[in-house]
Every structure is written in structure tokens, then in C-alpha cells.
Design a protein that fits this description.
- One of its GO terms (biological process) is carbohydrate metabolic process.
- Keywords: Glycosidase, Hydrolase, Signal.
- It comes from Terriglobus albidus.
- The strands form eleven sheets. The chain has an eight-stranded parallel beta barrel with strand order 25-26-28-29-30-31-36-37, surrounded by four helices. Strands 5, 6, 10, 11, 14, 17 and 18 form a seven-stranded mixed beta sheet that branches. It has a four-stranded mixed beta sheet with strand order 12-13-15-16.
- It is built from 13 helices and 37 strands.
- It has two domains: about 270 residues, no CATH class; about 325 residues, TIM Barrel, CATH 3.20.20.80.
- The chain has about 675 residues and is α/β, with parallel strands linked by helices.
- Strand 15 and strand 16 form a beta hairpin.
């Protein structure tokens, strides 16, 4: 029955409703007790709905850092014939849905045996659009080995620029196509990577899909031709009223009752497509890596296998399309996410290994103060403990930070515990900032405010120093600031001055560390500006008083190494490549006249995230860097074949999670570091 107010438990019910916001027809599908809005016409009615299409090949231009050289360009114009000849616009004999177009077969597969109607995309009108990508909104990677190119670009920026040039397309679907591009969300390249986006552009009210066509990509990119484009096209038909500019991980458009688990075990959220990345439950790629799911092959084309609505609701029927076996069972709910300061399940069942051979290497960890986990309970392998966080106080003058002891602590108790840990030769620092916190020092008067606020925190609790964790968009480089050696961005200039004043006040033993995201130092090898390279001026300006730098190898997108090849996170190669960029220095944005100098090995640590990858991979990366002995699974060759025996060590977020997981990280990396021989 097609009665939208009735709750049915089987395949679902289809019912036409009036065209909602956007520029394409929509109808309602009811599955179980949930109603969903889908694009097109009701396939349970014996009618044909036709959707006019404006196909927009995008020409993206990237600035060239070398004076006198033209911009580098990725142009999708040449991909148009392949797209119009593909199952997006041409009929193909699908296993389910009939001999028809990809999205029509998707809708008919959802309807099942009741399908008698069609929704067809008409022959498109082609309108090319050119967009310049400023340094802060993306970059171009190329493989030295195979010559393949792929860009990593801000999807919201592209959407804004597209609809500045393209007026509202009444009654039409805009299909915007890039060539060899993967995307990041919320103007933050640590929220990478996505195949594109879709929904209704609020500025114009136009229904659109933004995706990419892949051809001659680097070998590390595994999807091909129209696969990334069909993933976003399918998600649009399953969720046409999605708002792609909604910040955070809040779903818009169609929302399911329970968060669903992805193939990787991560929680996809409650939307059609995963939170932030708009990936499918069929995706198997690691967070921050190039998207990949096993494709469905149609002639020479690769199509995205996607979840149908019954998969999300748990009803009976077909769960995936085109390959019905891609998702043989309905969605599984996300596991409960336990807050870091929760008490449940935090008592370890095994002991931390004693630290009896403490040499020059250090295991560094962040402690965020779990309720039943005191500072004095920190396992013996940890050498430098960083309390997280002192946060910006936006109700006070700019530059102010405030710190509140963790739950269960009075200031006096925390002071005593810090003193006790320091008596055991541990260093205890306070981290400033943290993810999701915005910090600025635009005005000169923010310098004394910053120094005063931080001095009070350090003095009251007895911290050994400060750790700087101001993440994107904090400290983004101004558009006219091109030389890290002579920065002009006010917040950066004033922060350097404030940290120097703190060091002068507390003396030579005062520790200052930097914990940049991958975008904030290593990415500067390919692009400089905005979020990219924002910690270069800090590292350079504080180089004589800097204690250590530990790049977050987890909050980081695919990047290019000193060997000219592209690597992605959660691999031995990536840890070696990222760390050697810091150890060896590099030409900023590829410009040989602007070299970022090496940071000494005894001031460099590798940054890890507990739960992000296996401890064995983390150990392999550190051991490779220390000894130069290349693991069997590594392809990256160190520039310095003997390795870096003076490497300071490794950092983890968090000590708390390591304890909950029975010290599976500190018991692996700690003994390796504490028994390793350093070269002095």
C-alpha cells in the first residue's frame, strides 16, 4: 500500500509528494515507521519522470609557488564524453532494476517487485566553469613514479565558487564534475577524504551533485572513472534535500533512527552517507585516506555499490545496489561511544611494564584526566605527560586561557600529584588549545594577556612547560603572508612573542613543544598558506628554545614525501615519510628558494592515536626511523639510510585510552624506545 502515514515493516511504501525545496521532483518512501524523501518519480507508478541535467565540467587551477610559472590545472572537460556514454546517462542491463540508467535502476531496486515506473536523466546541457583554488583551500599531488595527479580540495569552497558563477537551474539537476579530485570537509583538510557532496545549494536553491571522474590517477588511488561520481549521485537520489553546508556531523535531509556502523567499525552517523565524508557502508578505506569501495563493473565503467534505504532501516528486501551481495545484511548499530572521562571499563587487567632502562628517548602522552584515573596512576613507561587542556576563554580579553582541574581533583590535589610525578623524573606539561578550540592573538595587547594567563596556570600547578595545540582554523596564515621566516599574520607573530616571553620568565628549563596536525607542517612541502604550513613560522621562530615537535600522523590527509611519491595514513610508509620531512627539511610548496630547515632528531617525536592503527604498525614506523632497517611492508626509502638513532621518541593521544586497553601501546613502544641506542 502507498499510504504514507501507515507503518509497514516489509519493503516499504512509495508515495508521490509535491516537489519540495530544490529543483528536481521528489517523492516519499516509507520503510518501517520512517518516511524518506527520494529524488525522482515514484517507481511504483507506471509513469516516466524525466530530469533535465546541467553537466558542469570544472576546471580547477592551483597556484604555482615558483615565480613566472603558470598555474597547474585539472580540467574535467575531456571527461564529458566518457560520462555521457556511461550508465549514468545510457541504459545498462543491471542485475536488478532492469535495462536502464544507474539511478533509475537504483530506485527500481528499492521498490522491488512493485516497480513499474522510471526516472530518467535527460541528455545534459554542458556548461563549463573555471575555479581558482587558493593555497588555503587545496593542493595538487603528483606521483614521481607514474606521473599520476590527484588534488585534495575544500568541497564547500568549490560549492560556493560554483554557484557564484552558475545561476539557479530551475527544474534541472546540476551534475558538477572535477577531474582527479578528492575532497575535505568544513574547510579543514584533517577532515579528509570524500568523493564529493550533494544536496540543495542554499544560496541558489539548486539541486546538485559534486563528484569526480578519475583517469590516470596515481597508483595509490584505487577507484576508477565514474565510481566516485556515482557514489554521490546515488546518495543524492537517496537524500536529495541534504544540506551540504551544515557544520558538524549533524545529519540533514533523511535521518535514520540509529547510528550505523561502517565496514571499518567506525560510526557512520544517522544520515544517508557517513558524517562529514558522505561515504557509504561499503567503503573500506581508513579514515583520512583516499575513499575506496569494491566497485560494480558495467562494461568498461566502475560504479559505486551503495546501500539502499532498507539497509538503513533494517527492513527486509535488497540492501545494496548494483551488487545485492555487497551488503548481504542490514545495518548494525554503532557501538556506544564512551567519553574519555567515563569511569566504566577503565581499570586495566594487566600491568604496565616497569621502566628500568631510561635512556635519552622519550614516550610522550596526553592525559585528559579520567575520573577514576589519577595522574599518579600513569604507567611507568610514560616519560613526558601532557595535561589536556588549558582552553581559550572567549568571555575574557583575547589571549586568555583558563584551566580547570579534571573531574575528581581539587587544585591542591593536582599540584601534589604533579609534584610527585616530577619527583620520579617525569615531566608534566600543560597543553594549550585542543581540537575544536579556536584561539587567536590578533591584537598586540593580547601578548601580555596570554603571558599573564599562562604564567598563572604554570606557576599554580607546577607544570614544566607548555604544549601548543592550536588546530585549524586557529593560526591560519593570512593571504599576503608568504615567508615563514618573516611572518606577518598577527596571531602567529604575537604567539611567538608570547612564548618567548614565557621562556624568558621561567628560564632555560621551561619546555615548549609543538603538536601540529599534518596540514600544519608536512603539508607545506606541497602548499603554503591558510591552514597549510601554519606551524612553520612557530617552529622556525622558536627553534632555539623549542623542546620538541610531534606531528599528529592521524589528523592528516594524503601527502607527498621527499621521494616525490604519495602516501596515506596508518602505514609504516606514512610515519617514515612524514617524520623525515621534519627531520630533513624541505622546499616550501616545492620552491627551492624557500627551504624549511631540518629540526634536530632529538627534538622530533612521531605522533600516534590509540585505536587508529595496530601497535605493530606504530612500532615498525618508529623502529624504521631509529635504525634504518626497512620493514618488509614498507616502500618508502629513508633519505638517510642509517636512520635517526637520536630520534626523541613517540607521542600518543591518549594515555587514558592506553590504560583502558591494557597498555597495549605503551608496553610496545616504551620498551623499544628505552632500550634503543642513541648516537651522541
Amino acid at each position: 500500500m502507498r499510504v504514507k502515514w501507515m507503518c509497514l515493516s516489509l519493503l516499504g511504501v512509495l508515495s508521490v509528494i509535491a516537489q519540495a525545496q530544490g529543483t528536481v521532483p521528489v517523492f516519499q518512501y516509507t520503510a518501517g515507521d520512517q518516511a524518506f524523501t527520494l529524488a525522482g518519480g515514484d517507481p511504483a507508478k507506471a509513469t516516466t519522470t524525466r530530469i533535465p541535467v546541467t553537466l558542469v565540467p570544472l576546471k580547477l587551477s592551483f597556484p604555482n609557488s615558483r615565480p613566472g610559472l603558470p598555474p597547474r590545472v585539472l580540467d574535467a572537460t575531456a571527461d564529458v564524453p566518457s560520462i555521457t556514454s556511461s550508465p549514468i546517462f545510457q541504459s545498462f542491463a543491471f542485475p536488478a532494476g532492469g535495462n536502464t540508467q544507474y539511478t533509475d535502476a537504483l530506485l527500481r531496486s528499492t521498490a522491488g517487485s512493485t516497480a513499474t515506473g522510471h526516472t530518467l536523466l535527460e541528455k545534459p546541457v554542458v556548461k563549463a566553469v573555471s575555479i581558482e583554488i587558493p593555497a588555503g583551500h587545496g593542493y595538487l599531488l603528483s606521483s614521481k613514479k607514474d606521473g599520476g595527479k590527484i588534488a585534495v580540495v575544500d568541497m564547500q569552497y568549490v560549492q560556493h565558487e560554483l554557484f557564484k558563477q552558475l545561476p539557479k537551474q530551475d527544474g534541472r539537476l546540476v551534475l558538477a564534475v572535477t577531474h582527479n579530485v578528492t575532497f575535505f570537509a568544513e574547510a579543514d583538510d584533517t577532515i579528509c577524504c570524500a568523493t564529493g557532496t550533494h544536496g540543495v545549494d542554499k544560496a541558489t536553491g539548486t539541486s546538485f551533485v559534486l563528484g569526480s571522474y578519475f583517469a590516470k590517477t596515481p597508483a595509490i588511488v584505487r577507484e576508477r572513472d565514474i565510481q566516485p561520481l556515482t557514489q554521490q549521485l546515488a546518495e543524492f537520489f537517496n537524500d536529495p534535500l541534504h544540506d551540504p553546508l551544515m557544520q558538524g556531523n549533524k545529519p540533514t535531509g533523511n535521518v535514520v533512527q540509529t547510528g550505523w556502523a561502517m565496514a571499518t567499525g567506525a560510526c557512520g552517523g544517522r544520515g544517508i552517507g557517513s558524517a562529514y565524508f558522505l561515504l557509504q557502508p561499503t567503503n573500506t578505506n581508513h579514515k583520512n585516506n583516499f575513499p575506496f569501495a569494491e566497485p560494480f563493473t558495467a562494461k568498461q565503467y566502475h560504479l559505486s555499490n551503495v546501500a539502499l534505504v532498507p539497509w538503513y532501516t533494517g527492513g527486509s528486501g535488497t540492501y545494496s545496489f548494483p551488487d545485492k551481495n555487497a551488503l548481504p545484511a542490514p545495518a548494525k548499530p554503532c557501538g556506544a561511544r564512551r567519553p574519555d572521562n567515563s569511569t566504566s571499563g577503565s581499570v586495566p587487567t594487566s600491568a604496565g611494564i616497569p621502566n628500568d632502562q631510561r635512556g635519552a628517548h622519550r614516550l610522550i602522552g596526553y592525559w585528559n584526566g579520567s575520573r577514576d584515573f589519577k595522574l599518579t596512576d600513569v604507567a611507568p613507561q610514560w616519560d613526558i605527560i601532557i595535561e589536556a587542556f588549558a582552553v581559550p576563554d572567549h568571555s575574557a580579553p583575547e589571549g586568555t586561557l583558563r584551566f580547570t582541574p579534571p573531574n575528581g581533583y581539587t587544585p591542591e590535589q593536582l599540584q601534589a600529584d604533579i609534584a610527585q610525578m616530577k619527583s620520579k623524573s617525569k615531566k608534566v606539561m600543560i597543553s594549550l588549545g585542543g581540537g575544536g578550540q579556536f584561539f587567536s592573538m590578533e591584537k598586540p595587547e593580547s601578548v601580555p594577556t596570554f603571558v599573564d594567563a599562562v604564567s598563572k596556570i604554570v606557576s599554580q600547578y607546577g607544570f614544566d612547560g607548555v604544549d601548543i595545540d592550536f588546530e585549524t582554523p586557529s593560526l591560519d596564515i593570512d593571504a599576503n603572508d608568504h615567508d615563514f621566516r618573516h611572518p606577518t599574520t598577527p596571531s602567529i607573530v604575537h604567539l611567538i612573542e608570547g612564548l618567548r616571553q614565557l621562556h624568558d620568565k621561567f628560564g632555560s628549563g621551561f619546555m615548549i613543544s609543538l603538536v601540529p596536525e599534518g596540514t600544519q607542517i608536512p603539508a607545506a612541502a606541497v602548499v603554503y598558506g591558510g591552514q597549510f604550513g601554519s606551524y612553520l613560522p612557530l617552529a622556525y621562530g622558536l627553534r632555539d628554545i623549542l623542546s620538541f615537535v610531534d606531528v599528529q600522523d592521524y589528523n592528516t590527509p594524503p601527502l607527498q614525501g621527499l621521494d616525490g611519491e604519495i602516501y596515506q595514513a596508518a602505514t609504516t610508509d606514512y610515519h617514515a615519510m612524514m617524520t623525515e620531512l621534519v627531520l630533513r627539511g624541505f622546499a616550501v610548496a616545492g620552491n627551492p628558494s624557500l627551504m624549511f630547515p631540518p629540526i634536530p632528531a632529538d627534538k622530533v617525536a612521531v605522533g600516534f592515536l590509540t585505536g587508529y592503527e595496530e601497535p605493530a604498525t606504530m612500532r615498525a614506523g618508529v623502529e624504521y626511523l631509529l635504525t634504518g632497517k626497512k620493514p618488509a611492508d614498507a616502500t618508502y626509502k629513508l633519505v638517510h639510510p642509517a636512520g635517526y638513532p637520536d630520534l626523541l621518541g613517540a607521542m600518543y593521544w591518549t594515555i587514558d585510552a592506553d590504560r583502558r586497553e591494557n597498555y597495549k601501546y605503551s608496553n610496545v613502544l616504551g620498551p623499544l624506545l628505552h632500550t634503543a641506542t642513541e648516537k651522541r
